[in-house]
Design goal:
This is Eukaryotic glutathione synthase, ATP binding domain. By secondary structure, the chain is mainly beta. The chain contains one helix and seven strands. It has one domain. Helix content is 6%, strand content 49%.
């Protein structure tokens, strides 16, 4: 499914993305510090399938914002 990627205020249609999800947890002294057994959130990032580097800081990755976050 095509995706619109925005970088430097320029929109580009991308059709070959690879995505990964990172789950965050919060613990102190080995014990969870959230109401959800340590779960503290998630981040989804994507990159072109042809790209080796995928880091956000390198400028090659894309942070994914779900439609539920835009409304």
């Amino acid at each position: 499914m095509p995706t619109v990627a925005i970088r430097d205020a320029q929109a580009t249609v991308v059709t070959d993305l690879v995505s990964e999800i990172g789950l965050f947890s919060a613990y102190f002294n080995g014990k969870p510090v959230t109401e959800f057994d340590g779960y503290a959130g998630y981040l989804i990032r994507s990159k072109l399938a042809t790209e080796n580097e995928g880091g956000i800081h390198s400028g090659k990755g894309i942070l994914v914002i779900g439609a539920d976050r835009l409304m």
